[in-house]
Input
Amino acid sequence: MSARPGALPLRHVLTLPATGPAVRVARETTERVLAEWGTSRRHPMVDPALLILSELVANSVQHAACLSPNITVIYAAGKDTFAFAVHDRHPYRPALFAAVTGAGGGGLGTVMELTLGAGGTAVVRGDADGRGKSIWITLPL
Output
């Protein structure tokens, strides 16, 4: 993976209400965006990406909807990289690597195991005003 998400040439943004159907819509949009960008549904990284995205969107719906009526999914890609972020306006910033070491985590544990197992990276970036965050996942293609 050679590029940071901000440097990747392909971009797409999806904003959804923080409700249960957001998970399905985000998955379907991810499949469509990847296909438009030339990544086959059969690519071995697509299923892990869809599961990671689903977990992150579900977490935002479950834990952030009280303060964040909308969730934004940001997609970026380049020749050998697919990155996406799930953004909400809840200030809590989860400790991603604690989810791997067994200090709780639930769905975040799955997110981190899949991300790291695929040779990807994960990072939480807080909003400048401290009232929200994005969890960025970067995966090799």
